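Request: Mind sharing a record?
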Amino acid sequence: MKQLRILIPVVCLIGLAVLFFNRPPTEEKKATLKKNGPVQEVQEVEVTPPIDEKMHIYLVIGEGKVGEVSTDSKEAKFIDRCVQLNHKNEWVPMVDGNDSEHSFVRKLLGKNKSLKIGLVLSKRENTKIDAWMDRNLPETREMRQLAKHAIQGGDFKGVLWLHGNEVIEGDLDKMKSFIGELRSHIGDPNLPFIIGMVQGSESAQMQFAKIPESIHVTAFASAGSTELLGESYVEKMKELRVVYDKVTPKPPTDLKFIDPHVHAMSVTPLGLRAVANWMDERNVERCIVSPLMHKGSHPQNEEEYQIMLENFRPYKGKIDRMCIINAGDVKTAEEAVAILKREVADGAIAFGEHYGVGLMFDDPKNLMLYEACETVGIPVMFHIDQNKNMVEPGMERVDKVLKKYPKCTLVAHAYWWRQLGSGACDRQLKEHPNLYADMSGKVVIDVLNRDRAYAREFLIRNQDKILWATDEGWWSFGGKDKQMNQHYTFLEGLDLPDEVRRKIYRENSEKVYGLNAKK
């Protein structure tokens, strides 16, 4: 009987393990396997648990070939206290070799006898920077998936990039964009990034050596061999970690946020309570909830409309709301005006989030809504992406709407920010008194983080036009995601004048949405 009591939990654990490791592959994984063939299995060797509470994780990426793991454990030589994330998202023992990452690991482990390291290897032969920025490539998607998965296994410490011997025209600008995008994807805007070269031309080395002058927490390392490059990586990473500790900001403590871009299940009994709890946790004094066309977020009938209004009443002066009409749901601007007048009478203070699914930004169906909002006198918060309110480079369609409805205040969001580098965002904010932009969403921190010097100048120059916001919703309230946390800390790392901070964090939202008059 005693043996049976011991055997039962053991069998249960084995069964759970079998279920876990035999999960069916995702559709994306199936497509990758279909194109590239099955991924070679690595040898099954027991992985010892981390010695530290969290192992240090590094992403190794760029040009080069990742050596195949031998299935003969008698011949393979493993690096003690080092594991590698394989294509199945499993941590397996790291086989020793002659590449720069092996030298890097050996040197680091030699300096710290209690350290454990996890490597994410994603190198490719004969590739250029463009390939690593193309998210349609299965290899690039896999690299991003591995990096995101690796975060769960420890503390992400940095990225080692290995470049080829030459630098072609445009590589520097592309590298700056890539660093920003990758940091945003991993969820750390200050993640140390080292660019390395082995026996690169003098011209190439001189060009890449300039990267740290414009991109924060980056370094350039070069050497005559992979062994020496790995050692140089160690010294550069040590320097960057010191800088990292100094530049990583904390949320402001001298004021409270106003967030004009939040989504909630406002029709459900506990939807706004979740918002209120999140506000208390995040130092948000006031917010504006924008409905999405999800059941529970947007009323589907009159009964749900009345329930939504009742849910908002206890939070007057704390949680405000926007209203929405789908483009195409009304036949005339007059019909839209009638709907909006009722919404405003019932407490709505703005129109949004305006999607315009499948339409160009200045489509007649959209123009009808802008006209109605101008007539009623409420601002419009709009979304732009590849299939919503679409625009071409330069965003002339946005210019057209801003000129056609000069008394309608528009607040830009999402892919509008992607044209920051072209100067279109700067130009439009300067030329149009009725245009503002909120900083919500993943893409904003991404583009601003590519060149912090420019970002600081841009925000100071447009200090009266930018609204701090998060785009958090029922899917993220209470979460600890690093990407979302950046919204609460990013501006603090730019050393903005106090007057600018206060305008962006609070005062511009009060002005655009008339919050002072709606206590």
In short: The longest helix spans residues 226-247.
